[in-house]
Amino acid sequence: MRKNIVAGNWKMNTTLQEGVKLAEEVNEALKNVTPKCDVVICVPFTHLATINGVIDSAKLGLGAENCADHLSGAYTGEVSAPMVASTGATYVILGHSERRQYYGETSETLKTKVRLALDNKLTPIFCIGEVLEQRENGTHFDVVKAQIEEALFDLSAEDFGKLILAYEPVWAIGTGKTATDDQAEEMHAFIRGVIADKFGTEVADNTSILYGGSCKPSNAAALFAKPNVDGGLIGGASLDAASFMGIVNAF
Ligand code: PEP
User: Ligand 1, atom 3: nearest CA belongs to which residue?
Assistant: First the structure.
């Protein structure tokens, strides 16, 4: 059966010292509870190795927010999947809308990144989602389907089964505007159908599909109660241990 997962995406926030403190707070809070979901924090590259040393990996997973589309070599400033894995991290967010929008990431690039992540035993948290205009002109289902097809349909069913998907309507990210639980459920069910048509119902049923976009303690329980919403990818609210734990405990 698929897992429930709450994953934080810290984005480009916190200094190393602030990040270590935040990770320690989340780690401490998890000592006292047995959450009904896996909990992961995805943090800046600079923080990975140090944070890996202060958290209990049995209770708190660690991931990067991106990785390079090359294995190694003359790519100044890039960080490869093996480098991420060497810090102890086991997850990597790929295809976040901010990477697609500001850094020109295409499905072709993402296909390569997913391959490199899997080859290095990193679990991709693969993000998909439409912009407001696409939601308003009714092309949101086509857009999301194309994002999945273009970047992920070359995978074997076995490899696809290693992914976590995150549906993040771009109009809801960092805007305070959350998709309603019915809108989220409708899209998550659609995504599961797309997976089932290509890889079969067993793979589809076992794939965790997270919702992302202004998720907070006050709306998480209603979203997570939907049958096809298997957790959340959390931006802003993951920067405060109490809010993040409020979402974790919403399950
Ligand atoms: C995100 O960036 O993945 C995200 C969901 O951000 P926020 O929760 O701040 O909308």
Answer: 235
